[in-house]
Amino acid sequence: MADLHVHSKYSEAPPDWFLDLFSIAESYTEPSLLYERAKRAGMSFVALTDHNNIEGALILKEQHPEDVIVGVETTALFPEDGCKVHVLLWGITEREFAEVQRLRKDLYALRDYIRERDLAHSVAHAVYPVQCSRLTVEHLEKLIVLFNVFEVINGGRNRADNTSWARLLANLTPAVLHDLSRKHSLEPFDNEPWVKGFTGGSDDHVGLFMGKTFTVADAAGPDEFLTAIRSKKSRADGRYNDYQSLAFTVFKATWDSACSKQTGASRSLLGDLTASLFSGKKMSISQRFKLRRLKSLARRTDDPIYASVYDVAQIMVKGRPASVEERVSAISERVALLSDELLRRLLLSFERNMAKTDLLAVINSLSAAIPGIFLSLPFLVTLKHLTSTRHLVTRLVETLDCHPDVQEEERILWFTDTLNDLNGVSVTLKEIGWLAHRRGSQLKIVSSLLPLEVDATLPPNVLNIPFIYQFRLPYYESYVIKMPSILRSLEQLCACNPDRIYVSTPGPVGMLGVLMAMLLSVPCVGFYHTDFTLQAREINRDESVASILESYTRWFYSLMDETRVPSAEYVELLANRGFDRRKLSVFTRGIEPELFRPREEGKNYLQQHFSVPDGITLLFAGRISRDKNLDLLLDSYEHIARENEGINLVIAGDGPYLPQLMLRSQGNPRIVFTGRLDQTILPYVYSGADLFVFPSATDTFGKVVLEVQACGLPAVVSDAGGPQEIIREGRTGFIARAGDIEDWCEKIEQALHMRSQAPALYRKMREAARAHVLETYRWDAALDALLEREGAGQARVDKKIA
C-alpha cells in the first residue's frame, strides 16, 4: 500500500485561490513528518508528490532508500487553450524531472514522453478544474484517450465526484474509445485504451490525512509497485473528503501559516488550544488558568455561548487521542450550536426591535449576527467548493452513453415550510410522500416540525431538520414558521446526496432548499402553490404589503431553474406579472380514487355527526380565511334561502376567519360549521352534499375541488384562479364570475333546478365529475413526471459523439 498523492513544504506556489488570497503556502509539513505518519498509517511505501518539485522527495529518498518513491505532481497545459491538468509521476530521475518541466507546457508532448519512457503515471483529480481553469467535457474526453491510469479516489474530493468518475472509467468500451480517438484526432495510450488503471491518494497538504487514502497492489518492493501501476493492476481505497474536514484543513493551513510568521494569534489562548489540537503541544500554566476562567464564566452565567466556546476548547485540549475524523465531527457540532445561538439571539432581538419600530436597534442587531455568519461561512464555502464540478461527469456520461447496466433513480429532496397544516400544500405533499414511499422511490420531504406535529399521518420519508427559532405568520396566526439551523441541517441533507431539489414554499425552509441546491450544484425546481400577493390584497387590503410580497415571491422563484404551477391559467397570470415564462410549466396533481369516491351513507353521516337538517345541502370545504371570499358565499346563500326553503350550508374547515363567520351566522340552524375534519371523513361529507360551492379567486389550484369531483359532487367555482380548470362547464359543474353575487346565485340556482327538475341529468353530471377526475388526474402519471430523471427520454442520437 502507498499513499500516492502527498504534499510537503517543498511544493511550488499554491494552486488554490484561497491559499493565494491569504498568502498561505500550499504546505508547511516537513517530509520527515509525512514519512512517520505514513508508516504509522500502515503504508508499505512512501511517495512524495510535491507540485512541480522533487527536492523534498529526493531528501526523503536519501534518508529511506528502501521504501521511498520519488514522485511529483506536475501542472501540464492543453496548448490550445491553456487549461491546466495535474499529472502524478512516480519513480522519476532528476534528468526525467527536468525534461518533464520542459515539456509540461504542452500536455500532448508530455504524454508522448511519459509513454516513451514508460513512466508510472496517473491523472490526478481529473474532474476538478486546476487554478480556476475552464475544464470542459471535451478536455475530459481528450484525457481519457491520452492517458492510461487515473486517480479515482482523491482524498481531497467528495465521494460523489470520485465514485462517479470511477464508474464512468470502468464502463468505457472499445467503441467509445474509438469514437473519441477519431473525434479529437488523438492516438490512444496503448492497444486497450478502454481498460484503465486506478490509483488513490490523500492529496494531503497539512499532514492530517496522510495514509488514509491509498493505492493497493501486489508488490514486494517499490519497483514492483510501480510496475503494477504501469500495467493497470492497482486499485484505490480509503477515505473521501467532506465539507467539514475540508474546512478543518483550511483552518489547519491558516494556523500553519500563522505559526510560520510568528503572529500574535499563535501565542494566544486560541493559539495554544489549536496547537494542542493539531500537534499535541502542552498548554502553559497561564493558558490553563485562562481556560479555567472560561469554564467558571460558562457555569456562572449559564450562557450557551460561553458553554459552547468552552466545549470547543475542551475538545481541542483533550481530543488529541481521538481520530482526526472524530475531532472534526465533534468540533463541527459545537461550532454549529454556537452559530445557532448567535443567530437565534439576532432573530429574537430583530423581532423585538421591529415591534418597537426601533430602526437603530434593528441595525445593531443585524451587525451582531456577523460572528454567527462568520462561523458558518467556512463550511458553506467548502461545501460549494467540493460540489462545483459535479455536472461535468453527469454531462460526460450522457455524451459518451457510458451508463452502468443498473440505472439508479434520482434522489430528490422536497423542501416545505408547511406539512401538517390545513392547506393544499400540506395535503398534496403528504400524499406525494406516501405514494413515493410505497413505490420505494428515493424522495424525501424536508421540513422542520415540533415533536407534537410528528404523527402517524406523516409518511416515513419525512426528514425533520432542527430549527433555532419560530414565529407566527401575520394574518395566518395558526401557522408557526420555523427558522432552520443551517449547519446542523447541512450534515443531514448532504448525507442524502440529492440529484435534484424541489421547493414548495418561499419561507425559511424553502430558502434553505434553494441554498442547498446552490451549494450542492444540483437543479432546483420551485412549485408555486399559493398566490400570497392576491391573498394579502383580500386579507389585509393593504397594497404596500401586497407589493412587498409580490417582489419577494418573484425574486424567490427567479432563483429556480424551473417553476411549476398548478394550472395553465397561472402560467399566463404569472408571466404577465413578470415571472420568466421560459421557466414556467404546469404541475399536474392526482387523486386517490379509492379514498375519494362516492359514499352512499353520506346524507346519513351529515345528519348523525353534524345534525344537518333534511333538505338540499350546499358545501364549502377548505381553509376558513377572508381571502376565500366566504362573505360572498354567505350573501349568495342568504339570497337563495329566502326564495327556497330547506337549503343548508355546511362549512367544513378551520382558519382565522371562522369566528367572524360563526358570529354572522348565529341563530341559523341550517348553517353548520364542522371544524377541521380528518381526511378519511371528507369523502362522507362530500358525498352527503348536493352541490359544492367554492368562491375563492386566489387559489392556484383548489385541490378540494378535485376531491369533491372524485366523490361525484358537482361544483360551482370562480372564473379566476386555478379551480376553473378542474371543472367542465355544464358537464361536471359551473363557473361563475368572481365576486359577482348575481352570477353566483344564478349558477347555484341552475344546479339546484337541475337536481330537482332533471334528476337524470343531475345524476349524469355527478358521474361525469368522477369520470373526468379519474381520467385526467392520476397520481401514478403525476408521480412519474415528478420522479423522472433529468434528461430521460431524449433521443440517443443526441448523445452520440459527433
Q: How would you describe this structure to a colleague?
A:
- The structure is a single chain.
- The protein is of the alpha/beta class and 802 residues long.
- The protein has 4 domains: 2-241, Metal-dependent hydrolases (TIM Barrel, Alpha-Beta Barrel); 245-383, no CATH class; 409-586, Rossmann fold; 602-777, 3-Layer(aba) Sandwich (Rossmann fold), CATH 3.40.50.
- It is 47% helix and 15% strand.
- The protein contains 31 helices and 24 strands.
- A 7-stranded parallel beta sheet has the order 12-11-10-15-16-17-18, sandwiched between helices. A 6-stranded parallel beta sheet has the order 21-20-19-22-23-24, with helices on both faces.
- A hairpin with a 2-residue loop joins strand 13 (467-473) and strand 14.
- Helix 13 (304-318) runs antiparallel to helix 14 (324-355) and helix 14 (324-355) crosses helix 16 (370-387).
- The longest helix is centred in the middle third of the chain and has 32 residues, at 324-355.
- The protein is elongated.
